[in-house]
Design goal:
heterodimer; A: alpha/beta; Rossmann fold; 10 strands; globular; B: D-Maltodextrin-Binding Protein, domain 2; 2 domains; 15 helices; elongated
Amino acid sequence: MTTVNDPVFVKDLTKTYYDESRGPVHAVRQIGFTCRPGEIFGLLGANGAGKTTTLRMLTTILKPSAGTAKIMGYDVAEEPVEVRRHVGFYSATTALYPRLTARETIEFFARINGYDASRTPARVDELVERFGIEEYARARIDKLSSGMKQKVAIARTLAHDPPILVFDEPTVGLDVLNALEMQAILTELKAQGKTILFSTHIMSEAEKLCDRIAIIHEGRILASGTLEALRERTGAHYLEDIFVSFIQEAA
Amino acid sequence: MLNLTDTGLVFLRELRGALRERSIVINVVLVPLFMYPVLLWLAYTGLSFVIGQTENFTARVMIVGDVGEDAALVREIQDTDRVELVSAADLEAAEEAIRDGRLDLLVELAPREGGDADDIEVRITSDSSKDRSRIAMSRVEDVVTRHRTAYLERAGRERGLAGPAYQMIWIERENVSSSRDMGRFILGMAVPILVIIMLIVGGMYPALDATAGERERSTWETTLTAATDRVNILAGKYLYVATLSTTAGMLNFLAMSLSMRTLMAPLLGDRIQDLSFTIPWSAVPLIFVVIMLLALFVSAFLMVVASFARTFKDAQSLAGPFVTVMILVPAVFMQFPGLELTTWLACVPIINVCLVFREAIGGVYQWPLIGLTLLMEVLYIWIILRIAAAITRYEDIMTGSYEGGLGGFLKHRLLRRNPSRG
């Protein structure tokens, strides 16, 4: 059942860009979904389907052109600061400040996101230990390998202990071991009660991690539900087939 | 409403990163403090060497004409230090040689038409586009003037007239400016423009790095996910850029004030002993205020311009012409020693503070105009910050997808008030 009190509530969310040469470009068209507490909700779609634009609207980086989106009851257009306080956003394209150390990065994001100043050092220690980055916690980010940077980026996302985590294609560009580690981290965060909104174009990943999946294509959500429910609707077993089935139906 | 804690956090984060960036430290601290004075000293030393070389050369002078009665004058020219008499085939050849630089001066002596028997006319041909020719001319003119004065005195004595009897006008010169005034005049001509250059150079890299640089490194999106109002992020960045720009200006002012005497020594030679390069203590607070205001103005302007760029290189191209204008215009204006702060000039950004700066160094305080200058500068800063605040409302500019620049933004969006395309 969908309610406005769910941690993530999206209704008729739309994003239209204005391009000088092409005119209006509809990146996201009237989509709607909710994420329930403690679940992993996956946005599954091909490149350019509108996943990143949707997540950027939910994290207030972009402003919706129309529709409503609420995070923990806060409207993304009206109360962006409160929204950001309750969300941790991780993106493969979101880089870290190269001249800061890992500790300084985590500390900065804990403080700027409203984490209590007196508890911040302990929080930084906790995250440094959790992600095993003690050895290079005081090294400048630009001296770290991409695997190390990935761990620091996750720690940064969790710095203020937000109840909702948004991961935009978190395993893109990672080798198999790092991708598996990322999946383990997502599972662990879910176990801690975090609500996770997660976008991917990798079917196996969505199949393995998500409690519910929304298939997004050309800015529209074609279907959403549990894997079982999607199987029932299409009669296909594998997510890849389910995905293709919905795309063909839409075409 | 500005959140000072969040603004402070962003400011400290930027500052911490900047102090680890070699190019920023060099531009903000080392260049203003050491490199600039050293470079100027080298330039002045080189200049004085070149001047010395030019002044010490031996001028090649050709004298033609019936020297008869003028033999004494010819001898005097010949005996002059660093003058060598040479010959040429004819007058045409001599003029050609002057144009080619093989000869410096041609002196033609002839009886003056319609004059007394011992009257002579001296015709001097030179090439004023050549340093050597100009200096040769000056040397020969000195000799002719001395010769004429000696002749007049001799002729006067022969007629029973003492010098004062035929010298109708006496000129006595008195310079009321003290050594301190002259030193301050030189400081006022040089220091403000140098400080402004350093202030712009010191603020430029941080301004571009904090805006376009962040976008290029993809850290801008990271910054936008921070749970604070974007105004706090911009305020923190702005304070950071202004702090570094102010620091560069202050350090350069300090370095130039302390080293000006040494810098000018090669150029002024012995005359340096008569000059005192001290800045009145009473001017220091006003100078600091002026440097700070200028840094706030330059930082705001550079950040607004750079916010339209996607990469650091783009930002350099966008900011380059503005920086050139910001340096060149006051540099040209400050070349006029007589230019004073007036009501109109107090309204011209950058030039107004330059003039307040120069007058303060000279110990001159026109308080109503200083007040107007500061007010106008604050007004300009406020206008630029309003534009910066307007920019934050356009997400295509904030995310780097806007195609135009500052001019296009002002024309098509801000003045038409058309945020719908944001």
